[in-house]
Amino acid sequence: KIIALGENTVKTKADPTGHSIINLIRDAAQNLKAQDLSQAKIYILQQEINILCEFCLAGLKLVNNPKIYYV
Prior knowledge:
With 71 residues, the protein is of the alpha+beta class. It is built from 2 helices and 2 strands; from the N terminus they run αβαβ.
């Protein structure tokens, strides 16, 4: 079941925090009404791999490191 989608909105919304992973975490947490996403699975498109900066990695750590798959 898909609970959230994330896209990079840094340029489109002039939001420096709008990384796709951060947007995904926000949506997933709101949809699940939970901060623990440890049971979630995140699928990342190959062209988005450069998104996993320290900011995004810290966000993933805050929600208990969900499993990540690269497709």
